[in-house]
Amino acid sequence: MPHDPVPGLLSRATELLEAEFATLPAFGGPLPKAAMEWVLEAVASRLRDNYPYFHPLYAGQMLKPPHPLARAAYALAMTINPNNHARDGGRASSEMEIEAVRQIAAMFGWGESRSKYLGHLTSSGTMANLEALWVAGQLAPGKRIVGSEQAHYTHRRISAVLKLDYTEISADRHGRMSLEALEAELRKGDVGTVVATLGSTAIGAVDPLDQILALKQRYGFRVHVDAAYGGYFTLISDSLAEPARRAFAAVGQADSIVIDPHKHGLQPYGCGCVLFRDPAVGRFYKHDSPYTYFTSKQLHLGEISLECSRAGAAAVALWATQQLLPLVPGGAFAHGLAQGRSAALELDRKIRGDSRFQPLATGAPELDIVVWKIKADTVGRSSQLAQEIFDACAARDLHLALVQLPLTWFVDSTGNADRIDAPLVTCLRSVLMKPEHEVWLERIWDRFAGACAETMEK
Ligand SMILES: Cc1ncc(COP(=O)(O)O)c(C=O)c1O
């Protein structure tokens, strides 16, 4: 584990923050330091039971370590522990949330002033999507929500919670929403909202948002973009393949957007974000809180969000990170995304060059997630080998992930060598989210090759 810079980063800032409140009378007795240290040692030992998410050899699920600055800013804010429900609970951090969200909105081309959109942070992508679908349901009561079968599973569940009908639209071999299937549903005349996913959870597929928006002209519906995973790729959309580039170019025309700073935005968990193009949807949130909203006539973020208490520290950490790494094309943050993507393209190239594996038939990954199937006589054997390789990699400290995908998505999957005895096949999956993955790719491949030799040649 690299030496943690956070305690060092915090010492000066903690002194400064303490000095800000130095005029208050002292209070509190001595802390049971020895006992606290003992408990913390126990915590450190308990935390060993984790995969090393912070390390480049962790290349499995969507897990990206928060930036040290984000961790330091979060910890510093913890000495105040602000609550961004109301300015009464978090004055500075509410202001920092508004500024940080404005920068995210600007990344999608939405107005500099908040009166041109409505947005706030949430505790997760799920909560952010819930707010977007809740507003969608208010605007089109009795109408259906539709999303691709590759959309995040929570859309169906959120719709059930909101008592909105939800229909799955089939996906094509790219993992993108099928436009033919979508149009067939639209013709029925009762679709209120289409959820377009920019960066699907399984393979990072980008739904054809530009074409979905064209259908909106004809059929009239609301478009919600779930960019919880892929949203930041808008900063490097010029380097993506044409279909994804066109989709990202159209994001600003969506009615609502969700993006998760706690996925690709270098933030600790507890940081999602929802944006609405029309600030007038704020009327749906209208409520009275007899306990709060007293110290300021300015907007309290609880007046425009469904959650009540929210971590002000999450906003502080995001604000700090975006000061250091502004959300601009060509900046250091964008470069970090490009490095992960370049690692993914390189891994995909190596997979394609090795006859033991079957890559996606449709070509290179759209973002930074690579999936591949193991060639075998049967689907069952292929799935079993994927599991064994996954375990053998883990024994070498290389952590990949598994995913079940339609067999037909893979190169040669209908050939003689692969009798179809199951529609889904378990595949290997690697989410290459860390900038360091670019320079670590050779070492990742070496360990993977070792695991394959052990598993496939026995
Ligand atoms: C595309 C997409 N949407 C929504 C979510 C849910 O986000 P969260 O886990 O922050 O609730 C995820 C999580 O992986 C996701 O990939």
Structure description:
The chain has about 450 residues and is of the alpha/beta class. The protein contains 13 helices and eleven strands. The strands form two sheets. The protein has a seven-stranded mixed sheet, with helices on both faces. It has a four-stranded antiparallel sheet with strand order 8-9-11-10. Strand 4, helix 8 and strand 5 form a beta-alpha-beta unit. About 45% of the residues are buried.
State the strand order across the main sheet: 1-7-6-5-4-2-3
- First-residue to last-residue Cα separation: 34 Å
Order of helices and strands: HHHHEHEHEHEHEHEEHHEEHEEH
Q: What hetero molecules are in the model?
A: pyridoxal-5'-phosphate
Structural class given helices, strands, pairing?
A: alpha/beta
Shape: globular
Work out the number of β strands: 11
Mean pLDDT: 95
Helix content: 25-40%
The biggest beta sheet reads: 7 strands, mixed
Count of alpha and pi helical runs = 13
Taking Cα atoms only, what radius of gyration do you get, to the nearest Å? Answer: 24 Å
The percent range for strand residues is 5-15%
